[in-house]
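In this section we walk through a basic example: taking a raw amino acid sequence and producing a predicted 3D structure, encoded as discrete structure tokens. The instruction is simple. Fold the sequence below.
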Amino acid sequence: MFSNFFCLVIVALTGTAQQTVPGNAVAFTTPSTPLANQTLIKVAMMIAQNNTDYGLPRKNAALGDSVGAIPMALEQLWADEILPKSVNFSFQWHYGNCNEATAMGRIYKDVKEFGADAIIATPCMDVPPMLGHLASNFNLPMMVWGQSMASVLASSNNLTYPTLLNIVPNYKYMASGLVSLMQYFNWTRFGVVLQSDSNGVSGGCNLFARDIDKAVGEQSTVSINFKARIFNTQTSDLRTIVNGIRKRARIILLCFDDITQLRTFALSLFDGGLKTKDYLYIIPDNDLLLSFNLSRLPLWKQGSRDLVNLTNVKDGRDADAETIGRLAFRWHYDITMSALSNRNYLGFFGRVINRTRDWPFYCPESDCGNVANGSIYSLLLYDAIYNYGMALNESFRQFGIRPEVYRNGTLLAQNNRKPFMGLTGFVTVETVKNTRVFVLSNRNFDKGNALQIFMQFAWVNGKLNVTLRNASSVMWDSHGGVIPQAVPPCGFDGNGCTVSVFELYKGYFISGIVFFVLIIGSSLFIIVYLIHSKIVENRKTNLLWQIPFAMMKRVKQRQLADRQSAAERSHHSLRSNQTNVSALTNSTMDSLAQSKNFSLYTYNGDKCIVCTFGSTTAAAPLSVAEMAECRAMRLFDHENMNRFLGLSLDGPNLLAVWNFCMRGSIRDVILSENAMVKDVMFIQSAVKELCEGLQFLHNSPLQFHGRLKSSACLINERWQVKISYFGLRWLKSPQKMQAKDLLWLSPEQLRKATDGAEINVAYTKWTLTHCLNLHICLPFPMVNMAPCWEEGHDSEEDFGAMRDLEEMGRSRSTVTRHAAGATRGRNADEIAYLVKRGGLVPLRPMIRPALDNLHPELIHLIRDCWTEAPNERPTIEKVRQRLRQMNAGQSINLMDHVFEMLEQYANKLEEEVQERTRELAGEKRKSDILLYRMMPRQIADRLKIGQTVEPEQFDTVTVFFSDIVQFAALSNQMRPLQVVNLMNELYTTLDAIIGEHDMYKVESIGDGYLCVSGLPKRNGNLHAKECADMSLDFLKAFHTFRIPDLPNERVRLRIGLHSGPCVAGVVGLAMPRYCLFGDTVNTASRMESSSSPNKIHISKATHTLLSTNFNGYLLESRGEVIIKGKGVMETFWLLGHAESGTLPAHNSHEGQSMAQRNAEENEREMYRTYRKTMTGQDKDGEQQNGDEQQKKQQQNGGGVIY
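The resulting token sequence is shown next.
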């Protein structure tokens, strides 16, 4: 079912002409020519609705991605003034595929019913020839585009298609050029492999194959030697085709409509071995995709992101495809020399899609909504319309704009000769054949994957000209610089040449000789290399253990003493349950200081233990075996073996350098006051680690220690046991063993009286036994602990008792329990003699376990290791096995145990820290409360963080002064303790009132109070109100206050208030105070001193603030009063507040004696006399209270600063 669409739109381009540059926008307006004077040309066309209508999805030339080029070409024709603006077009188009019958019927109907003036052919291979006959019948011009490359359109004359306007290349010229290429390189034979459909009719490769056959048949120098069709690469037997090529062709034409199938076949060629330089593959561009897409990736690159997504196969064989691709030439029409190649063609394709949705097609969203890129064939459609416009221009110029002119296809075809630069290159149409002239190119990718033109074939005046663009050596780089031959010199099967046996098997002969030489050379090289490597390695290893004496620095005795004192100080600073590392180090330093053969040095900044073995001048040079032993010892790497650093051979003495272990030896640890050795875990871990070290030593080249003892078993900072002082037998042999060292030898070694070089392996367990015995036999005060073999412990009688027991034939266990006493009072030589003598009950140390939780099996193991007969003692492997059985089900990890102890201690410390922190926080709160009571919170917070409090100016504050009337007289009537109680009750009452108001108590001196409001936190004008309210509350509290010790006496209070500016700041360092400065403070003090008992005296400034800003205060003018230092001032009384009423009436003389009252009357009389003198008036009505405050004012002079 085909839908018919018709659209008639008249458009014109106004303004200056614009170039058709892809991506530029073109503005449209209503044509200036009146509609009555316009010429409308009707164009009929048929196009696919989508690309699948052609059956080849990748050859996109459908409505949505192509027809937008038509209005763009028309706009350019109008802009270039090739067509007048009065000429307009309307289009009638149909959806359809490449079916000839359907296309003929639809176009015929458009010509008859629509009155079409021109035809645009379907962009297919087979339909345009049929439509060409229809156009010739009606003498209508027909334009072709897309893949209309059929050779029939390029006829030898204009009689077949006289109305054809053709700018599309054709297969005929491509085939002729290909034959010329064969002739140029003298290739007389070639093969053809083409992709075909099931019937072998449709498709570009089928049409091209026909033209190849015709071109080959027209001459006699080139022939097709092999031809095969591939219908489906998934089912065809490609191996048969590959074998046929191998037997019959070396120059092969590969024509494929699908790039994916081309790649598949190329991989088949690679698998078949057709990948040598003898083969040349020519890939023609049968659908113009290659011509329009020359910049894309090579064949062997997958997932191209250019105009056409050719393939996205993930087979991982790009390298194989590249091998075939390097042997291939690309044969195509060269349209890359166009203006488009220098422009943004991607922008052009974007405009094509946009114009498809605009005039004149208005493609619906259902057909064009999913189109992403414009078709590459839209370039040909653009040039076809532009060429049609050029023919119309020439025809209009000759005969005018008339229907019989633009409907005359023959006339337009004859005027289709003017060349122009189109988007597909320079367009030139031949006069005779009415076809466009193209240039054929032979290209391929060079080593840098750049596409190079090697040859170009161009028709000039009917003749083919060949142009070489690059040197022939570059052209044949992929073939080793040699032009491949159509027929191999020895034939396709290789049997055409006589070859000798050596030549026939030359590769095998050469390979065998080379292989034999390589085997011998490699063997010699490996032998020499191994010997040289061993020598170099030995030299390097010798450098490791040879330590220059200049790099070592001895730690002197004074430095040891300093470290000892530091360790002692550190020890005293630690708690008793901590791990005392400093004490252990101190013990190690002591043992080093007391030994003449051991010294403490520093090497490369690290501490090390140095053993002295005599002068280097008397020592003989080291032998090869001795140096080998030093190398082996230097390379020892085991966690229970102490690191041997090397020998110093260039110093005054021969020195053996060992790694320093800060906790000393097992003997040092046992003799130290440390809690670790009292732990069963430490004993078990020491046993296990010592056995592991002995096992490693027995399996090493040294095989045994020789002089193993407790002082040779060191402990590092991680509490790991490390066996030290092993090896170096040639240095230890000349040394005479001391008597105490004999105690570490087995009985049989003592009997041989050797130096211990052949000590029994299993008996070295005694070292561990002795360490455990030392630990178990310790008395409680560990400071006095000594080994069981220590001299002077036992008496002579105990020794005799042991011999008596032996003679009596007691059992071994009974005698052994008494054997320990036999060593009392004996020196080392005597003990060694007793051990060497043996007997029925041999002498052994007494085992008295001090730890209750020590495994009993360990005691039995120790006794087994003390067996007299060497063959009855357990081997080290048996010892390790029995230790594992003892510790079955539990992990012996000393560091984990230490960490657990430290974690428990840390938790305890954390609890203590938290408790102390809580106590500290409580004390801090108390100190903060006390500090906030002494000065304002803002000031105190700044002082706490160390900030400096600068003096600050306040514009207006209200200062409060108060004083108790006749406080001295009251104090004289009470005892001092009563006075203190009275003041405490008064201050407590007043401080509570102050806390209810925004007031800051500056200080209290005796019976006087100084408060202020409005600083350090400003509160606007509220400071006057706060002071007034607090003053009223003070008087109310004093009204009900009674003195417990003087119930008949009343406490009276004078209050003075003044408002004004002042300065506040912190004064002093030892006892800082927050003080006020300024005349406002002095004036407030005068207000208080000139006030009357139980009255509030305020200044005019305070009166103004209260009366202006606040309502309800009862104020009364006192009149003018003489204020000391201020002169005459108008002051006021604050009587109360309207809400609470006036203050209770008080008799100002209550509690006064007659003498005091007379004194006050005299003062008032003196003041009235002064006023009469100053003003001449008697102000009897003015209340002049000559009370005790005025008297105090007259007695005290000067300003007041707080």
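Looking at the output, two observations stand out. DSSP finds 40 helices and 32 strands in the chain. The longest strand covers residues 1053-1067. In the next section we compare this with other chains.
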